[in-house]
Amino acid sequence: MLRTTSLLRRLGRRQASFNAALAAMDAIETSERLRVAALVGGLRSWAKAQGIVYDDDELQKLSRPASPNPHRARERRGEDNLGRSYEAFVRDVLRGSLPSEEDFSRVLRTGAELLRSEPVVKELNVRESLTIVGDLHGSLGDLNAVMGLHGRPSTKSRIIFNGDFVDRGPDGVEVLAAVLGMKLAFPRHVHINRGNHEDAALSRAYDFEAELVAKYGVDTSLLDDADDAFAAMPLGCVVNHGSTRTMVLHGHLPRSLPSLDELKRAPRVRSVVAESEEDVELVRDVLWSDPWDQSDVVDNFKRNAGCLIPDGALGEWLAREKFTRLVRSHETEATGAAVTPVPNGERWTVFSCSHYPNRQGLTLCLNKAAVLQVDARGAVNVRRWDAGEDDRAQGALAARVRGALWRHRSRLRDALAGCSSISAVAKAISDIVGQDAKVWETHLLPCLADGSAAEAKWHEIRDFLSVDLPARHLPPRAATSPAAHAVFDLLDTDRDGVVRRAEFFDAVGAVNQVVPPERRIDGDSVWGLLDCNGDGELERNELERGLRI
What we know:
Blueprint: H1 2-50, H2 56-62, H3 86-94, H4 101-116, E1 121-126, E2 129-133, H5 140-150, E3 157-161, H6 172-185, E4 190-192, H7 202-205, H8 208-216, H9 222-232, E5 236-241, E6 244-249, H10 260-264, H11 280-288, E7 290-292, E8 298-299, E9 307-310, H12 311-321, E10 325-328, E11 337-342, E12 345-350, E13 369-374, E14 380-385, H13 393-407, H14 409-416, H15 422-433, H16 437-444, H17 458-466, H18 482-491, E15 499-500, H19 501-514, H20 523-530, E16 537-538, H21 540-547
Parallel strand pairs: 1-5, 2-3, 3-4, 6-10, 7-9, 10-12
Antiparallel strand pairs: 2-13, 5-6, 8-9, 11-12, 13-14, 15-16
Keywords: Calcium, Hydrolase, Manganese, Metal-binding
GO molecular function: calcium ion binding; protein serine/threonine phosphatase activity
Family: Belongs to the PPP phosphatase family.
């Protein structure tokens, strides 16, 4: 028994470290993708303002970084016709039928209209059972598992989907279509909360736009419809259930610990990443924040967005606002769901995507999926399953860490030259790549040494950056795309086949004159991502690689 307990503890620590490393890499790659996407968007605006002729379809592709989750070809089972019921539409999607572009657009637009008619934070009085679903991240298999456990939504069986329907998995279209279709089919029994990936900027920086193009073609306008639906989604639900009162939202409370009335007055915005207005901070915090074990509310250095809320502050809020518990999602859990006692109540985390991300969950740690089922008395029960396949997630994560180091290779070489300890290495990498130095030392660098910080020698990392990157550490290299040619031709003003640093910064300066202040580009940070070998020049293939972070 003691040996089993010890093993479970080790597995739990390993899962926690993996989750921390995964969140850190998400934050690093999100920041890098948004910087590159900002450059491309700015170039489009600048070219139009100058009357420069270019292939706009190809430049639009540049705002869509290649998805790390290639989408399998899917046979369309005839044209869907929403003259039939939304329930039939959902049934077909859950069976694997890709909705037609016309039907998906109609579901997005009609769903957005319905969601806009609802409060930003809804109050639900529930007498029977209620199911709360966590992140699904494009996993149609897990959504089918959810509906198999829950059954048909009804007055006696309501369901709350707590955000993050798209990105990371191959079936974001189907998951979003099915969830919105259920909302339209059962508007009083199905409730939708917004997640941090339901965002106009992230849908372009991550996988969803690329998935739409892969499934519907480059000319599709579905992303605009999806952005409207994302912005219309409520932020949370208040569930009055028996003698209990539950707040359900995606991330956590905002840093200001506002009253419920203040939460209900939050604005609806298309992006909390791209917009910087003060009143957007509350929404950003709800979608991006996490709990932590310290005593102060601080910025969320793990994700570079939102904040970190101590359980003591949460407990005070629960007592003040007369809540029993907070139910959130946003973070993976080894067993799909977990509860933490806090002063005056409890905090639940539920995650409904097994083997996250994209079937790359840890084999030994069993990243299961779960939903929370609240019974008629208000008691919480956990229902778990595993719809994934065992994969080697550590190898995939290590490849992402190596890729981040390689993209900043030229600056890291000099910075690491004088380092004599792993702590110094972590600090140098933190200053250049981003994320807290302790996260690099404790979670990210050990990924390169099979989980052992002692084996992640500083000189091994320095040697790794001093030679050409082995092919096994790079994603498959596609032929240079027409999209990369389009941006290269805009930057290469002297037409000599090379983009020099001066040409790049001239273009950035011109772009910054025609875009709003909040969209101006930090040329140094983007150049560092593109000029991987540090020679001060960009060739076509080098630019292509940089645009495909």
